[in-house]
Structures are given as structure tokens and as C-alpha cells.
Amino acid sequence: MTKLLASALCATLLAVSVLAAPIRAADEPPAFPTTSLPDARSNVDALVGWPAGLAVVRERVWEDRFMTVPSAAAASAIEEKLSSVPHRAGTPADIATANFVRDRLTADGFSVQMVPFDVLYTNPIAQSLDVVSPKKNTFDLLEGDPAHHTDAERLAGPSFMENSGDGDVTAPLFYLNHGTADDWAAFDDLGIAMPPGAIVIERLGGGSRDPRAGSNAYEALKKHHVAGLIVYQDPAEDGVYGGVAWPDGNWKNHFMAERIGGPKPGIGAIAPPGDPTLPGEAPIPGKPHLTWAQTDHADIPEMNVTQAVARTLLADLTGTIVPEGWHDGFEMLERIGGNETVHLAVKMDRHLTRIYNVIGTMRGETKPNDIVMMGSHRDAMAFGAIDPGSGTTVMMQVADGFKALHDAGWRPARTIQVASWDGHELGLWGSLSLAYQRGADLRAHVVQYVNTDQLTTGTPYRASMSPELWGFGREIASLVKGIDGKTLLSAETAKKPVMVPPGGGSDHMTFIYWLGVPSSSTGYYGHFGAHHSAEDNIAGLATYDPGFKQAIATAQYTGVQLMRAAGAVAMPLRLSDVAMQLLKDLGDAKKSPQYVDIDFAPLKSAMVAYRDAARTFDASLFATERAGNATALATLERRAMIARDAFWMPNGLSYNRFWHTIDRYVAPFPELSFASYETTDRDAKIATALERLRAAIAKARELAKLPDDAHVATIGTKPTF
Fold it and tell me: Helices (DSSP H) in 157-261: which residue ranges?
């Protein structure tokens, strides 16, 4: 930066700061710093998606103001409102949180809409577990030490399986490892007689990329006439083997369990996402639903128990020693059993409940039809102080910050929407329901989605982002400081990058994989042993985020991300990281047994060509930003968006029309992965999947290497449903 430009920038920066400062009484302390100077950010003169110039200077002043707003006191106060009592979707306590978010957003100057949907709700009415023989034992199913239960543990009630059937079964108990199809094959080879109507205990885990794995496991239960299922979390996977146990550390202790979905029939990958009682439709109030009995559902009782309960059950099993690889983290020799008689009873409540998405809108000043959206689910399995309270707390602090800026004169160019999703823990049903109702509109107008679910579970900090946003995200991570006082990016190593591709598990899935919107979920993602447990309560925040330092840093990052996305000339995209992630995914695929017989050479050739074109394209983007040419930058970024949309399939994936991204659906290369596990016409389906992916990459390459801007008009717009 020349001395002349530096002087001009600093003078303008000071003038902007003074002009934008709110009027205040002489004895009132300033709400924000009145000056800002260049710091260690990359691209000091320009920002990703922003041309160099005075707009960048002004933006940095507003960002510095915003970062003073999030605070520990505000985070604590918000958590008290959100997480003091259990609030499953559709319950009165959940509706109270909806009203809180509505009122808070209204006070922050957002226009607020409550969007209702009716969905299936399941919850245990009664659960019990007893050993009948050889020695009687009635189990306390609450989490925590039975001799010293906390009020929170009593209020949360026992852990449960949402998909459980009803049943009251007294039968012999058998240990079946993870309960996979391979485990059942090994059990059958042992020649042990399991009578019809037995109860099985399994440790969680043993997952597979095979989309039929869950269906096969459930079919194995039915084939063996199992009448009841007990599951637990292996301490070797989440317990003292991993690190310091709760409450002194992040890992489960023996008295913890989880509230989870549970197995049921059907292949989830091919089913319409959302409420199974209204498959493939928006559950708008008044629509008739199927009954639960008309859906594919579990018809045996299922129960999730603490490690202490599981250990007691397993310790008294006799008979055949388990096969190699079946031993879990309990310090004892384990056996298949059959000698122990157990009484298991579960009764579930199932009914339609009304959920409410709360959506606040701050209208953009110059590009109101473009929407930058931030969303977090609000309903919880119990108290949900971290999942999802930490995310909603960040979201509310960001909204508070935007009010402070708005009062001082700041106006976003694009419309900013804040979405508080409901029904997430039932199956992402809040965001999915909105996609059914308004999918085409959301795809047309939402240009970036920022998810804020479960953000403060300890180091490391990770930005789980669509790869086209990594350049944008890294720049923010070089500004915002973490809990160690250093920038979030400073902790990055080659083996542990800050920017990682998105996975699954939260509402960003709806926006990335259904709508094809660049999206992210950034925060502190350490081990979370209290996940879906009674211990994920306000007191538990002291273990995971003492002093709310993670909450502050994450709110600062998220707010700056939204501000830059809302004010950028066009969406701040880069293509090189997309190409490099494709190549990395391909390298990983070559090591996977499911792809051992596949020729990846043509696919790799297409990826390398795309990488080379993307690097040239991104160099042009960078130069255009630095040159301060807003018109040329907008043109290039439009090309980048359309090139990225080469991976969005308008008619959906080959096996599920609701999911559209061919490069990734939670895991890489979804169509290829699905085809690799097919049992009929596998080779032909693999060939088709490879060609569809190769063609998308080739199309992206062509769009990224257009020779001049005159051709931009010929590439059209992003595809629609």
C-alpha cells in the first residue's frame, strides 16, 4: 500500500468512525472505539468479495464496533432463558423459547414471522428395566449416580430412543457387539441357540457407509426374532479411555447415556427427508398425515442405558466368550450370555405436535432480494445448554450486535434473516419443512447460510464450510481471536486445518445438500460427551465453556461473516479449494475397500484440469479485488457461483430427488458411494455415477475458464428445481 493511499485510508477511516459514532451525553461512556487501524488481517486493502477502496475501510470500522458487543454476561442471560428446563419440540417449554426468540428479535429491530408446522412427536411415557434371574436387580434409569441425583437429572428423566416401539418383554439377554450384519453372521457361526423373543444388548458404533447397513441390522433383529433391544455407549469410544470424564472433563462417565433415534426398518438414504407421516410434503397445519402405524417403524421396545447399567448387565452373562474384536472398554472378560433373564418395558407417546420456526428479517438497503441467513435450532433433547443453546446464544448476540450497529447508522446491503428452527431433534424437521414449502424461493434468494448449532465444546476451533467459502472464512479467522488470545487461524497445521468440508447432523444440510447454497457451521468442536444427556445443562457450561469465552469468539466470527457476506459485491467465492477438496476426496476414496475395483483415472484427469482452471480463475478474482474494480469483480463472482452450481443436480441424486449436490452429501461422491454398495447392476450404476460426476467437473472447468467477460451472458443463471 503506497504512503499516499495509506494516509488517505487512515484519514477516511477516522472520519467515518467519527461521523458514524452515535450521539451521546457528555458523561456517557462511548459504546464503541472511535478509531480503527490496519491490523494483521490478510488482504488489508481488500477483502474476499470486496473491491479495494473506501468501502473496505468503512466495513472494518463497523466490524470493530460489532466485535465489542458479544459478552459473557449477555451469553449467560440468554442461556438462562433458553436452557433452564427441558424443552423438546412442540412442548409448552419449547413454545416459551420460541416466544423469547421472537421478542428478542423484535426488540433488535427485525420484523418477525412465526411459521407453524405440524409434525410427529414421540416421547417415552414409561420405561423400566429389571434383572429377573439369576439375581434380581431393578435399575435406576436416570443418568447420574443413583445415590446422588441432581435436580437436573430428575427433571430430564431417563434417556430414550425416539424410534422405539412399545413392548413389555421378559426374556434371556444376549450380547451382540454392534449388532451389524457381520456381527450376526459371527454369532450364527458360534451355533448358540437364541430362543425367539430374546432381548439383545449392543454397544453403539460399528457404522458403515453402506446405505443399507441400518436396514440390514434391523432385519437381522427381526430374522432372529429379537423382542427387545438395549444399547449403550462403549467407554472405549466415549469415556475414561478418551480423556478426563465428566464433570471435570469432556468425556462421558459411567453414569451418562444419550437420547437418540434408534434403529427402524427402511433405507433412510432413499426415503423423503422429514416427517415420515407426511412423506415428501410440507407439514402445513391442516394437512392429513399417515398414522404412525402406517409408516416403516420399529415394533420392538428399544432403550439406551448408562454405561453403569450396561456393565452390570454384561458382568453377569455367562457362556461362550465373545469373538475377537467384540470386547468393549469394560475391564472384564465378556461372554455372549443367554443365562440372564431381563424384563424390559417401554411405552411411547406419539402424536402430532405444532412446531414454530421463528424467522426475523432485517431488510437490505441496496440488494434486498439477496438474503444472507443465519440459523440455529432451538428445541433440545433435554436442557440443551450447548446443543443447541450455545448456537442460539451466538445467534441472539449477533442480532444484538446488528441492532447496535443499525442504531449507529449501519445498513446491510443484502437482507439478513435469522431463523430459529424447531423440530430439529425430531429429524431436522423445521428447516426441511420450510424447504418443502419454499424451496424454490429459498434457492433463488438465499446466497449464503450460516448455521450456529452446538458451538462451544472446547478446542479445536473448526470452520466447517462449503469449500468455495474457505478463502472467505480463512480471512475472517485471521482477524478474530480465540480463547488463547491468538487469531483463530494461528492454530492451523497441515494435519489439522481450520477449514474443513461440511458434514451432516444439523440444519446446514438442508441448505447445502438440498438447496445448493454455500453454507457453514463454525465453532469450537472438541469432544462432547454430554451430547443429548441430562448433563448438557446450564451448570455444565462451566465444564465446556468457562467464562463464555468460546461463545464470545464464535459470535464475533459469525457476526463478521454475516456482515461481509451481506455487504460483498457478490458472494465471496473461490474455486481452487473446491477442486483441491475433490482431489483429496478422490485420494481418500482410492484407499476405501468399497472402491477397490474402480478405475478413477478419467475422474482424476477431469479434477486436475478443473484445479488448473480454478487456480487461474482465482488469481483473476484476487487481482480484481485488489484493483478495486467492483463491476469486474461482480461479473467474476457470478461466474464462480454458476461454476459451483455445476455440481447441483436439478432433478436430484439418482437415488433421492430431494438431495441435489453430486460432489458431496455429508460424505464425498454420494452417487458413486451408493452405487458401490448395490447388489444388482453394480458395474453399470458405478459407470453412470462416475460419468455424472466427471461431466459436472468438466462443466465447472469450462465455466471457470471462459476467455472473456463477453461470454458471461451465455452461461445463464443457476439451475432451478
Answer: 181-190, 213-223
Which residues neighbour 356 within 8 Å (Cβ) at sequence distance 6 or greater?
Answer: 95, 98, 114, 115, 116, 422
Across the range 161-168, mean pLDDT stands at 97
Distance CA 611, CA 332 (A): 53
Parallel, antiparallel, or unpaired for β 519-524 and 446-451?
Answer: parallel
Angle formed by the axes of helices 682-704 and 630-644, to 10°?
A: 170
Cβ–Cβ under 8 Å, residues 480 and 548: no
Amino acid of residue 326: W
pTM over 0.85: yes
Dist. CA 174–CA 353, nearest whole Å: 37
Counting every residue written for the chain, the total comes to 721
Is residue 322 within 8 A of residue 293, CB to CB? The reply is no
| Residue 34, pLDDT score | 28
**75 membership: H or E segment, kind and range:** helix 72-83
Q: How far apart are CA 392 and CA 424, in angstroms?
A: 13
> How far, in Å, CA of 559 to CA of 553, rounded?
10
For residues 295 and 517, what is the distance between their CA atoms, to the nearest angstrom? Answer: 31
Contact 342, 199 (CB under 8 A): yes
3-state secondary structure 329-349: CCCCCCECEEEEEEEEEEEEE
DSSP letters for 22-44: PP--TTSPPSS-S-----S-SSS
What ranges make up the beta strands (E) of 493-595? Answer: 499-500, 519-524
Angle between helices 576-589 and 601-627 (to 10 degrees): 160
Closest residue by Cα to residue 393 from 530, 505, 260, 538: 538
User: What does the block give as the cell for 335?
Assistant: 461372554
Nearest CA to 574 out of 686, 474, 432 is that of 474
Q: Quote the cell numbers at residue 462.
A: 473448526
Residues 588, 580: contact at Cβ < 8 Å? no
What confidence tens digit (pLDDT) does each residue in 464-497 have? 999 999 999 999 999 999 999 999 999 998 889 9
Cis status, amide bond into 388, omega within 30 of 0: yes
Distance CA 71, CA 617 (A): 40
Integer Cα distance of 71 and 61 in angstroms: 19
How many of the other CB atoms lie within 10 Å of CB of 527?
Answer: 16
Contact at 8 Å (CB) between 686 and 598? yes
DSSP 653: B
CB neighbour burial string for 144-174, b if at least 16 within 10 angstroms, e if fewer: beeeeebebbeebbbbbbbbbbbbebbbbbb
Please state the separation of Cα 519 from the chain's center in Å. 10
Q: H/E/C letters for each residue in 678-697?
A: CCCCHHHHHHHHHHHHHHHH
Structure confidence by residue, pLDDT tens digits, 46-105: 899 999 999 998 999 999 999 999 999 999 999 999 999 999 999 999 999 999 999 999
**Integer CA distances (angstroms), 562 to 150, 420, 451, 572, 706, in order:** 40, 16, 11, 11, 30
3-state secondary structure of 126: strand
Distance of alpha carbon 187 from alpha carbon 182, whole angstroms: 9
